[in-house]
Specification:
This protein is an alpha/beta fold. It has one domain. It has 11 helices and 4 strands, in the order βαβααββαααααααα.
Length: 288
């Protein structure tokens, strides 16, 4: 059972906002053993949890980008040109200011430690969805993000392709569909955990709350982005469920330890090809 380190960074005094950190800590303790059982992955002994405002969340991401830039510069000084970094940083800052309502709870990897990650919570974003006090939705979201924490803790030291790098070619892991893999597995695990704990799955985008117009506008933007990239979180979760049913969880979990087994961008457009590759891989090197 992981120890949850809670750090509250709020500049608003709403009692329900302050209580959300304690509620998520309780939910983490509830779902953590089920996440480990369902995924057959392990969680770290400690899980940092930060409860913050949208402005604090944006500042935290800006700090992480600076850390990532320093890490990249150590590998290859030429790729971290200041002008290019400033342009990319400005674009991301504008997007974060505009669409932060889409991020209620988020697991984020540490750029400096391969296996370390933490969970960020924005009560204002959760409130904008009309779901501030909805335990069932919190169970689903915490399960999803704890699964990402387990992915990194289990395999990121051996398999750097699990992490989201600005310059993956520096680590020899370019061409792997990291986001598609991570997202599909997290969605699959969230459905498994909610089924185990609640006897049913919970919609990723529930409509029974009272979302604000600003959140609904941001959600439309997200749907447009999904149409451009060609997949949705729920869609790739369904694909992951089918593949795990076909190849078995032990065989599937080898992807966390071996970048060569991860799907390529081309295989995400034809997942049957990736499934066949998983099934034909050497089964003598399954993780314990």
């Amino acid at each position: 059972m992981p120890v949850v380190q809670v750090e509250v960074q709020l500049d608003r005094s709403y009692p329900e906002f302050s209580r959300l950190g304690a509620e998520i800590e309780r939910v983490i303790h509830l779902v953590a053993p089920v996440v480990e059982d369902e995924t057959a992955l392990t969680l770290p002994e400690e899980v940092p949890l930060r409860v913050m405002t949208p402005r604090g969340w944006q500042a935290f991401h800006a700090k992480r980008r600076r850390q990532q830039k320093r890490v990249d510069r150590e590998l290859a000084p030429s790729v971290s040109k200041r002008a290019g970094f400033l342009v990319a940083n400005a674009i991301l800052q504008r997007a974060e200011r505009k669409w932060w309502r889409l991020i209620g709870i988020q697991a984020l990897a540490d750029p400096t430690e391969p296996t370390r990650s933490e969970i960020l919570v924005m009560p204002a974003a959760v409130e904008s969805r009309g779901l501030l006090c909805e335990e069932d939705w919190l169970i689903r979201e915490v399960s999803k993000h704890l699964t990402y924490v387990a992915q990194l803790w289990s395999g990121a030291e051996e398999n750097p392709a699990l992490r989201d790098y600005a310059h993956p070619s520096l680590r020899g892991v370019d061409g792997r569909a990291q986001a598609w893999l991570n997202t599909g597995h997290c969605e699959w695990a969230a459905n498994r955990v909610t089924q185990a704990l609640l006897g049913r799955t919970i919609a990723a985008r529930p409509t029974d709350g009272h979302p604000t117009p600003e959140y609904l506008k941001a959600l439309k933007f997200r749907e447009r982005l999904e149409s451009i990239r060609g997949w949705s979180d729920e869609g790739v979760g369904a694909i992951t469920a089918r593949i795990i049913d076909e190849v078995g969880l032990s065989a599937y979990n080898r992807v966390w330890f071996d970048a060569a087994l991860m799907p390529t961008a081309q295989e995400t457009r034809n997942p049957d090809v990736w499934q066949a590759r998983l099934q034909s891989a050497d089964h003598d090197h399954l993780p314990a």
